[in-house]
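Hi Q.,

Before the meeting this afternoon, I wanted you to have the T4K prediction in hand. No need to reply - just skim if you have a minute. The sequence and ligand are here:
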Amino acid sequence: MSDKKITVTSPLLPNLEELNELLKQIWKSRWITNNGHFHHQLEEALADYLKVPYISLFTNGTLPLITALQALRITGEVITTPYSFVATTHAIWWNGIKPVFVDVDPRTGNMDPEKIEAAITPRTTAIMPVHVYGNPCDTKRIQEIADTYGLKVIYDAAHAFGVEVNGKSILNAGDLSTLSFHATKVYNTVEGGAMVMHDEKTKQRIDHLKNFGFADEVTVVGPGINSKMDEIRAAYGLLNLKQVDTAIEARHQVAIKYRKALRSVEGISFFDDIPGVKHNYSYFPIFVDAEKYGMTRDELYLKMKSKNVFARRYFYPLISDFSTYKGLPSAFPANLPNAHKMSDSVICLPMHHLLSDEDVERVLDCILH
Ligand code: T4K
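Predicted structure with the ligand bound:
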């Protein structure tokens, strides 16, 4: 077997000749950013593909989170999950808002709705859950709680590109949802992201906010930011959209192989597909029970590394354990037992569209032998 480096992911790249054709058009037009032709085309194509009414492109997946909180004028405290990439909580912090962590449901890794009410205070204004690994949150229950207490809901859907529940996009839940199109995601525009909203008026407001607040040449409607996607990445994104279904299917096949081989391994657990959910196979986390498996998570992680298999411990450490946040009362480990257990046992196996049978075998070999 070869010992070439196997990484946790590998970007989906458009065909270079096709990209070159689009670059020629951009060069000819000399319009390279600020709401150009390809920006429009990609917004239309994505709204259609993702089955959402309105979408606004961004330059990465962090700025739509920050902008969503601004747009809804969120203040005070926001209830969120510690089991995510650090950008989720940073977006709250950057708005001068206090994050309040609640524990997760070990069946999905997502915020446990039953823990939300106990975390609500008179200062709470919103809930920011994450569809972690693309596993859909319990959006119905979260909305019920939000409606009862008059809270807004912003979903960090960075992992949930194309995920549907009973034929409907998960991105339509809550007040706003945000996406990341980073190189490491199922669908990428190199760096990039988006926000999904329900109505045209909100889209217009977000479009202004991502362009410094400019409504026209002489009118600034609010303290906006610069988070526009340029024409080159929008063109790249249009090409990647044509092949994303094939890439997701290739990931699905890898998930099938992993599950088949790992189902009978004592001390290793993983998520199965959820009935009625169209998954995107963005990540393949496994959870190591050291006692039953006979090896700790970190021992297995290092063993993989020594064999040139670069899995990742997403999400370890927990966000609530980083120095900025660990002093918050809600970050106290006793408040977050499930999140700690998951974070201390998780390994995300290599998962992307280019993994060959031999690659999959090499990954499994590390775990099975
Ligand atoms: N919310 C959530 C829930 C998120 O997960 C993220 C981002 C965000 C918000 C914020 O979205 P962005 O602002 O990033 O759009 C990665 C990504 O940088 C980050 O986007 C992602 N989540 C996070 C989970 O993972 P790293 O530091 O692990 O990436 P890195 O550079 O170590 O790459 C991992 C592997 O991917 C490499 O070992 C090889 C492969 N790779 C990576 C890159 C960049 C390539 O083959 N080619 C490449 O160009 O953070």
